[in-house]
């Protein structure tokens, strides 16, 4: 049966910042929310029932790098030296280093000095947070990834009074979620066609939301849901 799909455009235009191709984004245990501070992100009221479930690309573990040498310049140089050692050690440890709260960007010798620093509440202390990534592959789960990160942190040569330690629980990341748009639309089309067919050949569907960015939420320890904030209505042709 040939089905008719009509794109419905909302009367009120909404500006949405879609991730650029190849961007890597963090998937937390909680769904993205409208109050999460991400500018331009528009979130549907609830996750649609039509979703694509797949493995995430990386496990991400925050690592806190800190120092408490009294002299400010010396403290900064010790932390920077430790960061340089971490960057050099990462390939041998089977990990990748990155930064970012939402969009993940590589941490390298070209940008590590751009990290922001804060204090842990004690005098003469500085600290910053980096991300250590482990690519998900057969035989690599959350526990194995965290153990690899812990071994990496132990292996890094810390300079002076600087330290590195795991911070918080691991989360996940996806590379370019929008690359799955076509597969998600296929799922929506198949479901819509199946439902419309139950009403007979005189019926088709009106679909909304296909022009929106791909959304995501965590589906399990290492899996994510990918979906479009879409809906459809069965209508007479």
Spell out the blueprint of helices and strands.
Layout: E1 5-7, E2 24-27, E3 52-55, E4 58-67, H1 72-93, E5 96-99, E6 103-106, E7 126-135, H2 142-155, E8 163-175, H3 181-197, E9 203-208, E10 215-218, E11 223-227, E12 231-236
Parallel strand pairs: 1-9
Antiparallel strand pairs: 2-6, 2-8, 3-11, 4-7, 4-8, 5-6, 5-7, 9-12, 10-11
Helix pairs in contact: 1-2
What does this structure look like?
It is a single chain. Helix 1 (72-93) crosses helix 2. The protein has two domains: 5-24 and 38-55 and 176-236, no CATH class; 59-171, 2-Layer Sandwich (Alpha-Beta Plaits). Strands 2-6-5-7-4-8 form a six-stranded antiparallel barrel. It has three helices and twelve strands; from the N terminus they run ββββαβββαβαββββ. It has 237 residues and is an alpha+beta fold. The chain has helices spanning 72-93, 142-155, 181-197; strands at residues 5-7, 24-27, 52-55, 58-67, 96-99, 103-106, 126-135, 163-175, 203-208, 215-218, 223-227, 231-236. This is TonB-dependent receptor. Keywords: Receptor, Signal. Residues 1-22 form the signal peptide. It comes from Sphingomonas rustica.
Largest sheet: 6 strands, antiparallel, barrel
How many domains make up the 3D coordinates?
A: 2
- Share of helix, binned: 10-25%
Secondary-structure element string: EEEEHEEEHEHEEEE
Number of DSSP E strands: 12
Examine the coordinates and then state which fold CATH places here, giving the name of the CATH topology of the largest domain.
Alpha-Beta Plaits
| Beta-strand residue fraction | 25-35%
Q: What is the correct CATH architecture of the largest domain?
A: 2-Layer Sandwich
The oligomeric state of the chains shown is single chain
CA-atom Rg in angstroms: 23 Å
Please give the CATH class of the largest domain.
Alpha Beta
CATH superfamily of the largest domain: LOR/SDH bifunctional enzyme, conserved domain
Average per-residue pLDDT, rounded, comes to: 86
Quickly give the structural class: alpha+beta
Unreliable stretches (pLDDT < 50, length at least 5) are 1-21, 30-45
Distance between the termini: 13 Å
Walk across the major sheet and give the strand order. Answer: 2-6-5-7-4-8
- Shape estimate: elongated
The helix count comes to: 3
Keywords: Receptor, Signal
Signal peptide: 1-22
Protein name: TonB-dependent receptor
Organism: Sphingomonas rustica
């Amino acid at each position: 049966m040939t089905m008719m799909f009509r794109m419905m455009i909302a009367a009120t235009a909404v500006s949405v910042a879609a991730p650029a191709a190849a961007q890597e984004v963090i998937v937390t245990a909680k769904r993205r929310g409208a109050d999460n501070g991400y500018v331009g992100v528009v979130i549907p009221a609830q996750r649609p029932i039509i979703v694509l479930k797949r493995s995430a690309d990386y496990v991400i573990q925050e690592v806190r790098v800190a120092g408490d040498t009294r002299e400010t310049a010396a403290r900064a140089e010790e932390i920077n030296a430790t960061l340089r050692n971490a960057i050099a050690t990462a390939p041998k440890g089977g990990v990748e280093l990155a930064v970012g709260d939402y969009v993940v960007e590589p941490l390298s010798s070209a940008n590590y000095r751009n990290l922001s620093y804060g204090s842990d509440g004690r005098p003469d202390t500085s600290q910053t947070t980096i991300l250590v990534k482990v690519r998900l592959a057969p035989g690599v789960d959350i526990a194995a990834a965290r153990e690899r990160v812990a071994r990496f942190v132990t292996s890094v040569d810390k300079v002076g009074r600087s330290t590195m330690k795991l911070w918080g629980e691991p989360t996940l990341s996806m590379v370019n979620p929008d690359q799955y748009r076509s597969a998600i639309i296929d799922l929506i089309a198949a479901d819509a066609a199946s439902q419309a067919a139950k009403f007979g050949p005189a019926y088709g569907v009106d679909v909304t939301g296909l022009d929106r960015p791909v959304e995501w939420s965590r589906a399990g320890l290492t899996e994510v849901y990918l979906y479009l904030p879409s809906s459809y209505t069965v209508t007479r042709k």
